[in-house]
Structures are given as structure tokens and as C-alpha cells.
Amino acid sequence: MSRTRNTRASRLATAGVAATTATLLAAALSPAAHADTRPTRATAIANAAQALVQHATTLGLTSAEGTSVRDVIVDRNGTQHVRYDRTYHQLPILGGDFVVHLKSDGAYRSADRATRSRISLASTVPSVSAPKAADLAVNALRAANLGDALKQVQAKPQLIVDALHGAPKLAWRTNAVGKDSLGNPVARTVLTDARTGAQIDAWDSIETATGDGKSLYSGTVPLETTQSGSTYNLTDPTRGNTYTGDAANKTDLCIFGICISRAPSTVFTDADNHWGTGATSDRSSAAVDAQYGTNETWDYYKNVHGRNGIAGDGKGSYNRVHYGNSYNNAFWDDSCFCMTYGDGDGTTFGPLVALDVAGHEMTHGVTSKTAALTYSGESGGLNEATSDILGTLVEWYANNPSDPGDYLIGEKIVRSGFGKAALRFMDQPSKDGSSADYWSSSVGNLDVHYSSGVANHFAYLLAEGSGAKTINGVSYNSPTYNGSTVTGIGRDKLGAIWYRALTVYMTSSTNYAGARTATLNAAKDLYGNGSAEYNAVAAAWSAVNVN
């Protein structure tokens, strides 16, 4: 039995939330006079399977390759989009993913491929052994953590075909994990040439990242909880049984890339269904923030984009708060389908359970189930920017007076020791001292949290336009690379365009030029080729030097 204390209807009315993406798609793509007779997921998969056979040459498929469906989207007018992963002689292909687009009658229309290189390897037997690849990855993990005395370091190599970095080659993809001197987790994925032992690429594997309750950052918020006898559990049965638990300041134990034990996630309970005090001394206060952030993120994706849960399958995730010791991070983990929050060190960061942080990290989960943008280079910058953009839109969607919408990332969690008012600034990303305002040929060499600035800047310009202005009491002044004046089209249209680009057109290898194409295709689908929205997308990209 659940007890509901939800004011969503009244908050939506006052927020003036615009038409959802689903509504936009219905208007732009579907004849109004017809009932919803869309093909089923199974029909779309069957149609796509037939297209694979008929267009194998066009798609670069050979008898040595296998395919598996990752995601399916069926538009209101019956247009179908089926996303695939690929294998070569049963080895996963990094950059082998592609999306098949089908007409409403199931006929093949086109495809978007992460890479176009034809795969033909002389052998799938590596010259570099798995133990050697593991050693190389461990060394890379230690180097990335600046010599910190890492503990419990382990690595698990997987033989793959790398089609993402030039000519396809046999490679080891190794997940190296360990703990730092405070016992907090560190992880790095290292890509090694299986012939020569040379490092191809490497990236961090941890993506940095309501009942009635008094939260730390969002005031008193409504929560939906589950009653068990005389006790209430912080479990929401209306959102896939999402729950929040206490990690008891412990961390996960992972060996060879597999977590053999995890920090606890003991579900919070309460006697009167009034949770927290709004102070860090009450451990349930942070839990209120985490549960509230999960709820708002769930509602945003469902009510605005028609997505039922992070994976689109209606299943809820779970949260762990009070993870590690003074842990200055929060992260989404696909392997547990969960969100984890540290308490911060109190000097640089407070507890990392702010609303836009929750929206950011959980969006990593959405990205992993859709475009799966590789977490390095320009694709990694787009991965981070996707979380910044959609996480920011979650904050605007919530319309919470204690944490009003803005274009600042993490402004609630920073403390005086951090030295800046926020983690990142979307109107002019370089204000953080490291992020890129505009694209250049070297932007992919930056850390993904800084190369994301180009897309963040694009998103702000597309929503709000260029120049000086004050929004919700925050002053912004967004410049342009080419000196142009950009007129914004609003946050709702930004969200609709970016979400469709992410879920329909982007692939694991999408770079900034590809993101321009993907968002223009999305704008064309939603508003028409040559529409004001389509032209605004083009202008905003040009304003950040993506042409």
C-alpha cells in the first residue's frame, strides 16, 4: 500500500510546461484523423531484420558478422528506428553500432552507422596476451590517478574489434578498477592494440557525474512511499519501485572488473512519512534529495519525451547515498542500474545530491541505452554535454522555488573551497577556466567535461539566444564565434530536438559535425525542413564554430 503526497498537477499548471516531445511528434508526423495503429516493437524488429538481409552490402555486413537489437523507437506515424550492435566472429565491435530507419510500411529508408570501415581481419588470435593487456591497463589506471597509492587494483581484458579508431583492428578492451587512499572507487577503460601492445585510447569508467521530506537543497518536497505495517519505506511504486538506500559510507569491492560485493543500499524507513530535517546531521535528508531527483528525472523523461524509465522499460533504478569517505563525486553505474552519491569533503563540495546532478547522472543511463556515445574524444564531450543539457532541463521542469531553473551546473553543491559559483556555465563555458566555448580541431583532446562546453554553449544559444540577459535572477552574457546574433527558440524545443537526435540519429562515434547533422535531422522531423527551428539549429552550431 502506498501513501501519495504528490502535487505534480498543480506544479505543472503553474510551470506552464509546453507540449511534450510525444505531442510534437504527433503533430509533425501523424495524421490527426487516424487512430494510433503504430507497428509493435516486434514488427519493427522483424521489418529491420528483413532490411538487414536486403541491404547487407549497403550496411557493410558480411557473413562473419552478427547483429543484436539494442533499442527500438516507433514514431506516431509508424516510422521505425531500430538500433543494432555488431560482432565479428562473435567478438564485439567497438564502433559497430548502427541505426536502421524504416518507413511506416516497414520499407527500408536509410541508416546511420557509427563507422563505415569494412571489417576483414587476417586473424582473431591476439599477439599480446590477456595478462599483458591487464598489466598495461593497471599501469594506465595508476598513471591517471597521479601516483595515488591505489588498493585492490584488478583488471579484466576483453578481446574485441576496434573499428572506432581508424582501420579496424583486433584490440583488448580492459576495465581496470581499484580504490584510492580513502577507499573510494577509481576505474579506467583502456583500449590496447592486440598485435603491438600500443595504447589506442583510454577513458574513465565512472561517469562523473519524493513522501513529504525536508531536503538539503530543494526545500520540502512531496514523496510517494510504500507502507509496510506501521513503517514507511522510501520506495516509490509509481515509478518502477525506485528506492533510496544508505551506503553506510562503504564502497564497492570489484575484482577483475566484476563487483563481487557492493556497498549496502539499506532502504530508508520512517515512522510518520515525514522524512529528513533539511540538515546534513540527519542522514535521511540527503536521501530525500536523491529520491526527489530521481522522481523529477523520471517524470521529465516520461511526461516530456514519452520515455518510461531510464531504459524505456518501466523499471526503476535505485539510489545509494552516503557512499565512501568525503567522496567528492556522484555517478551512474550501468552494472547495478543505480545512482550513487558521495557526501563531499565539506570544503570543496557538499553532499552531491542536487537536482541537476541527479538529472545529469541518470541521463548517462539514458545515453548508454540509446546512442552509447563513447566516453572519449568529441563523442565523450557530447556524452557529458547530453547529461548537462538534459539534466538542466530536468531542473527547469521541476520548477522548484528553492532550486529554480538556471544554466549553471552543480551550483548547489559547490563550497567556498572550489573557488567558482558552479561546476560549469552553459552560456559561456570558458568561465570555469577550462571548458571550450567553440569547436576547434583540438577540442577532442580535452577532458570530456571540458570538451562538452561546445555543445553546452550551442544548447544555451539555441534555447535563449546570444547577448546579455537576466533569467530567473541569474545574469548571462553569451558570445558567438562569428559575431552573429542568435535568437533562441526556447527550452522545450531545445529538449525535443536534442532528445530525438540522441535517440534516433546519434551513434557511439558521433562527433561535433555529426551532432550538427543529427540535430538538424531532428529539427526537420519535428518542425520541417527550412523551418525557423531548423534554421535556428544551424545558426547556433555556426555560432560555436561547428559548420
List keywords for this structure.
13 helices, 25% strand, globular, 7-stranded mixed β-sheet, 9-stranded mixed β-sheet, disordered N terminus
Summarize the structure.
With 547 residues, the protein is α+β, with helices and mostly antiparallel strands. Helix content is 31%, strand content 25%. Strands 2, 3, 4, 5, 6, 7, 8, 9 and 10 form a 9-stranded mixed β-sheet that branches. Strands 11, 16, 17, 20, 23, 24 and 25 form a 7-stranded mixed β-sheet that branches. Strands 1-14-15-21 form a 4-stranded antiparallel β-sheet, with no helix packed on it.
Report on this model:
With 547 residues, the protein is of the alpha+beta class. 31% of the residues lie in helices and 25% in strands. Strands 2, 3, 4, 5, 6, 7, 8, 9 and 10 form a 9-stranded mixed β-sheet that branches. A hairpin with a 2-residue loop joins β3 (80-88) and β4. It is globular, with a radius of gyration of 23 Å. Mean pLDDT is 90; it is low at 1-34.
